[in-house]
Amino acid sequence: MNKFDTLLTIRDMAVTDIAAVKKLESVAFEDAWPQRVFETELENGFAQYRVALEHKSQNKRRAQNIFGYSGVWFMVDQLHLVSIAIHPNYRRSGMGERLMFDVVDQANAALLPKIVLEVRKSNLSAQLLYEKFAFEKIGELKNYYKDNHEDAVVMLCKLDIHEQKIQSLIEIHRTRYPHLWT
Question: Beta-carbon neighbour count of residue 180 at 10 Å?
Fold first, then answer.
């Protein structure tokens, strides 16, 4: 049985989710954001943060486990993917891709034709995920990350050009991970 054979929900992050998201952030990243950043982002009218929840039945009540989140900023002509994280125990299970499809949906709903992001130069697994979604490397930002002065790779996806590729990815993903599309 797959660890995701339970009900999955992706919804807007609420203030009451911040403690769980902060905990997730701490295990997902060495340079985790402080709680105040999430509080500020939820007040930002140009930002949208979403959480991925797994629902389980425990002792006749429903428990919710946040195991992923994404955050975006709505810019004039593009969506900026600020952060995306999956709990390490749930990586390589299709959930990162599922959150990326949600990010694409946010861009499409806002009629924004591009998504841009920065990623650590050393984070090759994330870069591979983004390349799967037709992101292309368009530059680097020197000393971008404050914790260790690592460079960032700037990546861009032009949704209108890659619409068919993304639709094909969705069909494959829905077939492989139907439980992530409830």
Answer: 20
